[in-house]
Write a structure and sequence with these properties.
1239 residues, phosphoprotein, ubiquitin protein ligase activity, globular, 22 strands, six-stranded antiparallel beta sheet
Length: 1239
C-alpha cells in the first residue's frame, strides 16, 4: 500500500502565502496497476516541502479528504494526476458558499484573487454562482446546497470535462481541453474562508457511480460479494454427503461440524478482506441490506445474527472489531448523506440494518464501548435532516398547498381580529393539514426506529459476558456531555445543536419507556409523570458534573464549608484526605494541605449557624473549575460519632471508568446513587438509579445547546409567518386592482415545514422536562443549606424551557392547552419569587437570570396571575426582597419589576409604546417591555403594608431610590452635553453608538425610578407627609429637590434637552419630553392635590411649603406642562418662528380628562401659594443662610461643637457620616436653632 500523500501547490514568484487547509488522501492499492494516472512515491513527501507554499496539517475523516478554507480564497491541488483515459472523483459539499471545483495542470499558478478556473488549463464548476470557469465564465449547471455531491468527470480520450450534481448530469462543461506530452490534470479546488468539502477519490464506493469505462482513483473492483451469501446459506446433507443450499431461517450454528470447518476455511480468506473500508461499504453492507429488503420486522431475519455469530467465532478478534467499526461508520455515512426521498425509505433502510447489528449482544457491547461516542457520533443516527430541495423530497406532491393561522395565540403576540374563514381558505387549510399528517406519519416511522436503537443501548438485562449495555452507555454518555460542556467554544469538537435537539427527544421517549416499564413491575415507584432528581445525587459524588458551577460555588469549597451539614443531615463524611487535597483554588495555601485530622474534627464541632450571612457564602472566585472532587465511590466505615441508628458513610473520589453497576444501582445495603438521603426526602423509591442518571444527563444536554437551537428554529418559523402575511396582504391588494394579476405560483413557494419540528409531541417533551426541573428544585430546596450543591443548570433549564414553551412553538400549539398548565405556572412562579434573592445562591449570572425571569413573568397577565396565586407568605417575602436597598446589588431589574407592577395605574402611564414612537415599527413586538399594562393591585397592597409597618425598611429603600435617581439623571445630563458638543463640531459629525445607548439607558432608568417614587407616594403617602416619622421630612425635602432639578433641566426654553431631542439620533428614540414629565407630574399631583384617602389638608400644605421652599423651584416649569411658554422666550422669538410647545393637553389619548383637571388645579394652587409666600417672606441676610447650601436659613445646631446649618443639609449628611462638616468632631445630637431677636 502506498502511504498517504500530501496535497500541495507549487511555489510561484510573487504568490502570497495561503492559509492552512485540512485534508487527507486515501490509500491506493499498489497491487492494482492502472494506466493513465501518476501518484507520488513515499520519498516524494520529503521533497514536497521544498516546492510547497506551506506544510498542511492532516486530519483523518472516514478516509475521505476533508478540506476547510482558512483564508480568503485558498486553492489546493491533489498529488495524483491523470493523463489519459476516463476518470471521476466526488466532492461532498459541506457548506454552500463560494467554491470552484475542478481540474488543473502543474503549470497553473494560484493566489488569493485567482483560483481554479481563473487561469489557462484550469477548469472549474461553481454551484454557488451557477457558473463554469476557464479564464472567462458563463452560466452552467444548477445551484448546489450543503449535502449535495458533485461528480467531476474528465475524458482525456475525447478531451472533455463534465460535472454531475447528485448523479444528474449537468452536461459537458468544457471540450477541446489541452492534451498531449507533458499534460496531466490534477483534482483541485479553490474555496472561501470557512467553506468545507470532502473528496472521495475512490477509498469508498462512489455515491453515484457511472457506466463502465470511467474509473475512480482507487484499486481493483471487489470480488467478495459473489461468494459471501452462499457461505451462510449452505447446509450439510447427511443423505447425499455433500453441501446443499438450505433455508437460512432453519440454519443452526451448532451440530454440523463439517459445515463449520468449511466455513472456517472460507473465513480464513474472507476475514482480511472484510477489514477493508471499500469492501465493507460496497459488499458487506450491501449484502446485509439485501437481506432486510425481503420485508418484515428485523427479528424476522435471523441471518444477520447468524452471520455476526460466525464472524465472532471464525475471525480474529481484531478483525471483527475493525469490520464492525467500518460497517457502522459506513452506515452512519450512508444515513447522513443519503438524499431525502418522499417516503424516507433510504433512511429507514439504514436504521433497520443498524438495529439488526445492535441486536447482537456481543457486537453491541463492543460498538458501544469502542465506537459509539468515541470514533463517531452516534447522535447522528437520531437526526432527521431537512430536504435540500422541496421538489427532490416530494413535498410539493405531499403538501400541494400552504396555510398559516390568521392570528398568534402565544403570549407576547397581539392577536388580530379573526375574519370568518372563506370556503377557499377552509379547503386550503384542510389540504395542508392532510399533507402534514402524511408527512408526520413518515417521520414517526423514522423516529420509532431511532428510539429502538436507544432502547437497545439502554438494555440492562444483557449481563452475559460482562457489564450490561446501559452502564456502558451511561459512562460514554457522561463523557459525551463533558466534552460538549468543556469545549463550548470549539465548534469542531461540539456535537451540532440540531443533532442534540433530535437526540434529546428520542432519549426522552426511550427513558420514559423504561421508567414506566419499571413502574408497571414495581407499583410502589413513581411514574415518569412524577419524575425528578433526588437531591443526594448533587452532593454524594456519585455523578460527575465536571466543572459546571453549583448554586453555592465550587464543589471543593462547599464540601469543606458544609461538611457538618452533610454529616448531620445526610450521614455523609467527607474523607479528610480529600479535604486536605490541593485544589485549584488553594495551591498556595500550605496550611490547608497540612491540616491535621484533629483540626478537621474541631472544625466539624463548630456550629455553622451565624446571625449574619452564613460563612459558606464567602465563595472563591466563581467559574474556576475543581476537577479533583468530581466523582466518588462509597465505602462503609465505622462512624466517628453515633447519630441515632444510622451510620456515617465516608466518601472518596473515584473516576467514571472505575464505576460499576453496584456503584450505580447499589446492593446489600448500599444505596448506590441514592446514598445520603436527607431526612426531608421521602423514603418512597423513585425508579431504577441508572434511569435517574440518564434523566440528569437529559437536563444537562438541554442546557448545553438544545435551548439555543430552539431559538434559531423559531426564527425560521417567524420568517415564514412574515412571508405568509405579506403574501396574503399582496393578494388582497391585487384583488382590489381593476386588472387582476395572477399570483397562483406564489403560495407553493411559501411551503411551511415548521409543523415538522413544532408538533405537539415535541412541545410535550419540553413541558415534561420543565416539570422535572420544578420538582427537582422543590425537593432540593427542602434540604436547607444542602440546596447549594445543586448545579446551576437546573434553574437555567426551568427558566429556559418555560421561555421555549411560551415563545418557540407554533401558534397552533398553545402552552395553555397543556395538562396542569396553571399549576405548573404557579409552581415556577413560587421558585422565581423565592430564589431570586436566595442567600444560598451565590453565582452572579444565575441570580441575574432569576431576576430577569421574574421581571419577564410579571409582564404577562397569565404569569402575573400565577405570581398572585402563590402562598401569601411567599408573596410578602418576595416584595420585601424587592424593597431591599438598591446599593451594592443589581437594582435595575428589581426596579423594572416594581414598575411593571405599577404600569397601568400611574399618571398617563397606560401606554404600551411611547406616543412619539407609534409610527415606527418595533424590533420585536413580543418583548416584555412592549406588553400591555397589567398592574397587580394585590402585590401593590403588600408593598404598601410593608412600607407602612416597617419603619426601617421605607427610609432605606426610598433613600436608595433617590440616590440612584440622582446618579442616573446626572449621568444622563452629562452625556447629552457631550453628545451636543460632538454634534456641533465640524470635524466630527457622528457620535459613538455605545455612548448613545448608555445615554438612553440612563434616561430610561431615571423615568422608571420616578415611576417607583410615584407608586410609593400613591400607595403610602404618609411616608413622606407624616412628619411624626423620623425620616419623613428629609425624604420629602430630597424628593422635592430632585423633582425641581428634573423639571428645570427638561422644561427650560431652548435648553440642552430640547436640542438633543430635536436631533432625533438613532439610539435615542426613547428620549422625549412625555415619559419623564408625566412621571414627575404624577408625583406632584399625588403630593399636592390628592395625597391619599387618610391624608388631611395639612399634608398637602406641608408638601406645598417644602416644594416652594426649595431654591430650585420655578413656577414656569409647572406652567410648561400645560403649554404656557415663558413670556421672555416668546418676546425673543422671531415672528416667523412656528415652534410647537409641549403640552399635556395634546395627549388626550393617554391622559384622562380627570388627570388634566388635577394638573390645572395644581398649577392654580402653586401660583396662589407662591404669590403668598413671596409676600410674606422676609429678606434673609447672607450671614443667616446655611453655610453649606446657601439656600435655606440656619435652623440646626450640632452637639457638642455648636456649628450650624439648615436641617436639610445636616439630616442628609448624617445618613452616611457622623462627623461635623467643619471640625470633623463626632456629632452626638442636633438641636433646633432659632436666631435670638435683636435688642
Amino acid at each position: 500500500m502506498v502511504p498517504q500523500g500530501l496535497l500541495a501547490l507549487p511555489a510561484a514568484a510573487g504568490m502570497r502565502k495561503i492559509s492552512h487547509l485540512f485534508l487527507v488522501l486515501c490509500s491506493v492499492d499498489s497491487s492494482s496497476f492502472c494506466h493513465g494516472f501518476l501518484r507520488p512515491r513515499m520519498e516524494g513527501m520529503g521533497r514536497a516541502g521544498q516546492s510547497c507554499l506551506f506544510c498542511l496539517p492532516l486530519k483523518i475523516f472516514c478516509l475521505l479528504v476533508q478540506v476547510i478554507g482558512h483564508s480568503n480564497f485558498g486553492s489546493i491541488r491533489a498529488t495524483t494526476c491523470v493523463y489519459k483515459g476516463k476518470w471521476i472523483y466526488e466532492v461532498l459539499i459541506s457548506s454552500q458558499g463560494l467554491m470552484q471545483i475542478g481540474w488543473c495542470t502543474l503549470s497553473c499558478r494560484f493566489n488569493q484573487e485567482e483560483g481554479v478556473g481563473d487561469t489557462p488549463d484550469s477548469y472549474a464548476y461553481d454551484g454557488n454562482r451557477v457558473r463554469k470557469w476557464n479564464v472567462t465564465t458563463t452560466n452552467y449547471g444548477k445551484s448546489w446546497a450543503a449535502g449535495d455531491i458533485v461528480s467531476c468527470l474528465i475524458d482525456l480520450d475525447e478531451g472533455t470535462i463534465a460535472f454531475c450534481l447528485n448523479g444528474i448530469s449537468l452536461g459537458t462543461a468544457f471540450d477541446n481541453i489541452t492534451r498531449g506530452a507533458g499534460m496531466a490534470y490534477f483534482p483541485a479546488i479553490s474555496l472561501s474562508f470557512k467553506e468545507s468539502v470532502a473528496f472521495n477519490f475512490g477509498s469508498r464506493p462512489l455515491r453515484y457511480p457511472l457506466a463502465a469505462g470511467r474509473g475512480g482513483l482507487k484499486g481493483k473492483e471487489p470480488v467478495l460479494r459473489p461468494s459471501l451469501e452462499p457461505c451462510v446459506s449452505l447446509g450439510l446433507s447427511l443423505q447425499e454427503g455433500k453441501l446443499v443450499e438450505k433455508d437460512t431461517s432453519v440454519w443452526q450454528l451448532q451440530g454440523e461440524p463439517t459445515v463449520l470447518i468449511t466455513l472456517a476455511h472460507i473465513f480464513n480468506y474472507f476475514a482480511p478482506l472484510m477489514c477493508k473500508v471499500y469492501l465493507v461499504e460496497d459488499v458487506l453492507m450491501t449484502f446485509l441490506l439485501s437481506i432486510l429488503e425481503r420485508g418484515g420486522a428485523v427479528e424476522a431475519h435471523p441471518l444477520i445474527q447468524q452471520l455476526l455469530d460466525l464472524m465472532w467465532l471464525l475471525m480474529e478478534e481484531y478483525e471483527v472489531h475493525e469490520c464492525l467499526k467500518q460497517l457502522l461508520m459506513s452506515l452512519l455515512r450512508a444515513y447522513r448523506f443519503s438524499p431525502i426521498i418522499p417516503d424516507l425509505g433510504l433512511q429507514i433502510h439504514y436504521l433497520r440494518l443498524t438495529i439488526a447489528v445492535l441486536k447482537h449482544e456481543k457486537s453491541r457491547k463492543y460498538l458501544l464501548s469502542n465506537v459509539l461516542f468515541d470514533v463517531l457520533r452516534s447522535v447522528v443516527f437520531f437526526y432527521i435532516k431537512s430536504p435540500l430541495r422541496v421538489e427532490e423530497a416530494g413535498l410539493q406532491e405531499l403538501i400541494p398547498t400552504t396555510w398559516w393561522p390568521n392570528r398568534f395565540t402565544k403570549e407576547g403576540k397581539e392577536s388580530k381580529e379573526v375574519k370568518e374563514e372563506s370556503a377557499e381558505e377552509r379547503l386550503r387549510r384542510r389540504a395542508y393539514e392532510r399533507g402534514c399528517q402524511r408527512l408526520k406519519k413518515r417521520i414517526e416511522v423514522v423516529e420509532g426506529l431511532q428510539v429502538q436503537i436507544l432502547k437497545l443501548l439502554l438494555n440492562n438485562k444483557d449481563r452475559g459476558g460482562g457489564e450490561a449495555s446501559r452502564y456502558i452507555f451511561l459512562n460514554k454518555f457522561r463523557k459525551f456531555l463533558q466534552e460538549n460542556a468543556s469545549n463550548r467554544g470549539n465548534l469542531t469538537v461540539l456535537c451540532p445543536p440540531e443533532y442534540m435537539v433530535c437526540f434529546l427527544h428520542r432519549l426522552i421517549a426511550a427513558l420514559r419507556f423504561f421508567w414506566d416499564g419499571h413502574k408497571a413491575k414495581t407499583p410502589a415507584t413513581l411514574s415518569s409523570e412524577e419524575a425528578y432528581i433526588p437531591p443526594q445525587l448533587f452532593y454524594n459524588g456519585k455523578v460527575d458534573y465536571f466543572d459546571l458551577q453549583r448554586l453555592g460555588g465550587l464543589l471543593s469549597h462547599l464540601k469543606k464549608t458544609l461538611k457538618d451539614d452533610l454529616a448531620a443531615k445526610a450521614n455523609v463524611l467527607i474523607d479528610p484526605a480529600e479535604l486536605q487535597a490541593v485544589t485549584m483554588d488553594d495551591l498556595d495555601e500550605d496550611e490547608e494541605s497540612a491540616m491535621s485530622a484533629a483540626q478537621v474534627s474541631r472544625q466539624q464541632a463548630q456550629p455553622l449557624a451565624r446571625k449574619s450571612l452564613p460563612g459558606w457564602l464567602s465563595s472563591p472566585t466563581l467559574g474556576r473549575a475543581n476537577r479533583f472532587l468530581s466523582t466518588a465511590a462509597v465505602s462503609l466505615m465505622n462512624p466517628r460519632r453515633p447519630l441515632g441508628t444510622l451510620e456515617k458513610i465516608k466518601v472518596r473520589t473515584l473516576t467514571v471508568e472505575q464505576r460499576t453497576e453496584e456503584d450505580i444501582e447499589g446492593s446489600h445495603g448500599n444505596e448506590g446513587l441514592l446514598l445520603g438521603r436527607p431526612p426531608e426526602e421521602p423514603e418512597q423509591p423513585i425508579t431504577e438509579n441508572s434511569l435517574l442518571e440518564v434523566l440528569d444527563g437529559i437536563v444537562m444536554m438541554y442546557n448545553l445547546s438544545v435551548h439555543q437551537q430552539l431559538g434559531k428554529m423559531v426564527g425560521v418559523s417567524d420568517d415564514v409567518n412574515e412571508y405568509a402575511m405579506a403574501l396574503k396582504d399582496t393578494e388582497e391588494k391585487i384583488s382590489r386592482c381593476p386588472k387582476r394579476v395572477s399570483i397562483s405560483g406564489l403560495p407553493a413557494s411559501s411551503s411551511d415545514s415548521s409543523s415538522i419540528h413544532e408538533k405537539r409531541e415535541k412541545m410535550q417533551d419540553i413541558y415534561w422536562l420543565l416539570r422535572v426541573c420544578i420538582r427537582t428544585i422543590e425537593h432540593g430546596d427542602r434540604t436547607g443549606s444542602l440546596f447549594a450543591f445543586m448545579p446551576e443548570f437546573y434553574l437555567s433549564v426551568a427558566m429556559n424551557s418555560y421561555s421555549a414553551l411560551k415563545n418557540y412553538f407554533s401558534p397552533v400549539n398553545s402552552m395553555e392547552e397543556l395538562p396542569g398548565y396553571e399549576e405548573t405556572l404557579m409552581r415556577l412562579a413560587a421558585i422565581l419569587a423565592k430564589h431570586f434573592a436566595d442567600s444560598r445562591i451565590v453565582g452572579t449570572d444565575i441570580r441575574d437570570s432569576l431576576m430577569q425571569a421574574l421581571a419577564s413573568y410579571v409582564c404577562y397577565p397569565h404569569s402575573l396571575r400565577a405570581v398572585e396565586r402563590i402562598p401569601e407568605e411567599q408573596r410578602i417575602s418576595m416584595m420585601k426582597n424587592l424593597l431591599a436597598p438598591y446599593e451594592q446589588r443589581p437594582w435595575a431589574q428589581t426596579n423594572w419589576i416594581l414598575v411593571r407592577l405599577w404600569r397601568g395605574c400611574g399618571f398617563g402611564y397606560r401606554y404600551t409604546r411611547l406616543p412619539h414612537l407609534l409610527k415606527t415599527k418595533p424590533e420585536d413586538a413580543s418583548l416584555p417591555s412592549l406588553q400591555k399594562p397589567c398592574p397587580s393591585t394585590l402585590l401593590q397592597r403588600h408593598m404598601a403594608d410593608l412600607l407602612r409597618s416597617d419603619r426601617d425598611l421605607a427610609p432605606s429603600f426610598l433613600n436608595s431610590v433617590l440616590n440612584q435617581l440622582n446618579w442616573a439623571f446626572s449621568e444622563f445630563i452629562g452625556m447629552i452635553q457631550e453628545i451636543q458638543q460632538a454634534a456641533e463640531r465640524l470635524e466630527r459629525n457622528f457620535v459613538d453608538s455605545r455612548q448613545l445607548k448608555v445615554c438612553a439607558t440612563c434616561f430610561d432608568l431615571s423615568v422608571s425610578l420616578l415611576r417607583v417614587l410615584e407608586m410609593t407616594v400613591t400607595l403610602a403617602p404618609e411616608i413622606f407627609l407624616d412628619w411624626n416619622r423620623p425620616s419623613s421630612e428629609l425624604l420629602l425635602r430630597r424628593l422635592a429637590q430632585l423633582l425641581n432639578q428634573v423639571l428645570n433641566r427638561v422644561t427650560a426654553e431652548r435648553n440642552l434637552f430640547d436640542r438633543v431631542v430635536n436631533l432625533r439620533l438613532p439610539g435615542l428614540e426613547s428620549v422625549d419630553h412625555y415619559p419623564i414629565l408625566v412621571a414627575v407630574t404624577g408625583i406632584l399631583v399625588r403630593l399636592l392635590i390628592s395625597p391619599g384617602q387618610n391624608s388631611t389638608s395639612s399634608n398637602a400644605e406641608r408638601a406645598t411649603a417644602v416644594l416652594l421652599a426649595d431654591p430650585c423651584f420655578q413656577l414656569r416649569s409647572i406652567q410648561y406642562l400645560l403649554g404656557h411658554a415663558e413670556p421672555s422666550a416668546l418676546a425673543a422669538a422671531p415672528p416667523t418662528t412656528e415652534k410647537r410647545h409641549f403640552s399635556l393637553h395634546t395627549y388626550t389619548d393617554y391622559i384622562s380628562t380627570e388627570e388634566l383637571a388635577k394638573v390645572d388645579k395644581m398649577l392654580s394652587h402653586l401660583s396662589e401659594e407662591s404669590k403668598q409666600a413671596a409676600a410674606t417672606t422676609l429678606p434673609t441676610s447672607e450671614e443667616d443662610l446655611c453655610p453649606i447650601c446657601y439656600a435655606h436659613p440656619i435652623s440646626a445646631i450640632f452637639r457638642p461643637c455648636s456649628h450650624k446649618s439648615c436641617k436639610a443639609c445636616i439630616n442628609q449628611h448624617l445618613m452616611n457620616n457622623k462627623d461635623c462638616f467643619f471640625c470633623k468632631a463626632t456629632i452626638t445630637g442636633v438641636d433646633d436653632f432659632t436666631k435670638p431677636s435683636s435688642s
